Amino acid sequence: MSLVMDTLRTSMITEELSDAEMGILEGLFDVRGYKAGEVIIQPGDKQPDNLNILAHGEIQVKIQSSDGESAIHILKPGDLAGIITFVGGSSAHISATQCAVGDTKVLSLPRVKFETLLNSHPVIVYKVMRGAMRYVHGIVRSMNAKSSDLNNYIYRNSGGY
C-alpha cells in the first residue's frame, strides 16, 4: 500500500468511498514532508486552498493570546487541516499556527485538482464534501461540549464541581 492510500483509509472524508473511488482520488494528492518545529500554516501568510490530511507524525495547533502562544490541539494521522480555504473561505479567517511535531508527512489536495472531478466523478466530490462536513461537525460538537463544561465549572452548575 502507498502512504496516500493508507492515509485515505484512516480519514473521515473517505468513509463513504469505495476502493475504486479512493484510487481516483489518490492521484490528486501531493505528499509534503516537514521537519520538527517547521511551520506548516500560520496567520498572515498567503494560504493555498489545499485540503491537508496528516499522514504521519503530529501537528501542534497554536494560537496567540495575551499570555503568549498557547497550544490548543494536536492533530493525529487522518486529521484534516486547511478546511476553511479549501471550501472557499478567506485566509484572513486563519487564526492558528500549525507546526510539525517531529518528522511529519502531510497529504495536500489542491482545490483546483479536486474540482476537476466535478464533471467526471461528481459522486466522489459529493461524498468527500459530506466527509469534510462530518469532520467539521465533530469539531463543533467537541467545542460545544468543552464550552459547556467550562461554563458549568465557572458557574458551578450541574453539581459536578
Summarize the structure.
By secondary structure, the protein is α+β, with helices and mostly antiparallel strands. It has a single domain (3-155), classed as Sandwich (Jelly Rolls), CATH 2.60.120.10. It has six helices and six strands; from the N terminus they run ααβββββαβααα.
List its traits.
39% helix, 6-stranded antiparallel β-sheet, Jelly Rolls
Q: What would you note in describing this structure?
A:
The protein is of the alpha+beta class and 161 residues long. The protein has a single domain, classed as Jelly Rolls, CATH 2.60.120. It has 6 helices and 6 strands. It has helices at residues 3-10, 19-26, 83-86, 111-114, 117-120, 122-155, and strands at residues 30-34, 39-41, 50-65, 68-75, 80-81, 96-110. Strands 1, 2, 3, 4, 5 and 6 form a 6-stranded antiparallel β-sheet that branches. A hairpin with a 2-residue loop joins strand 3 and strand 4 (68-75). The longest helix has 34 residues, at 122-155.
Radius of gyration: 17 Å
Overall shape: it is globular
Main pleated-sheet profile: 6 strands, antiparallel
Instruction: Bin the strand percentage.
Output: 25-35%
| First-residue to last-residue Cα separation | 49 Å
How many DSSP-defined strands? 6
Q: Calculate the mean pLDDT score and round it.
A: 87
Continuous helix count: 6
Q: What is the CATH homologous superfamily assignment?
A: Jelly Rolls
Please give the domain count.
1
Order of helices and strands: HHEEEEEHEHHH
Helical/strand content category = alpha+beta
The CATH architecture designation is Sandwich
CATH class identity: Mainly Beta
The amount of helix comes to 25-40%
Unreliable residue stretches: none
User: According to CATH, what is the topology?
Assistant: Jelly Rolls
Q: Give the oligomer, counting copies of the same chain as homo and different chains as hetero.
A: single chain
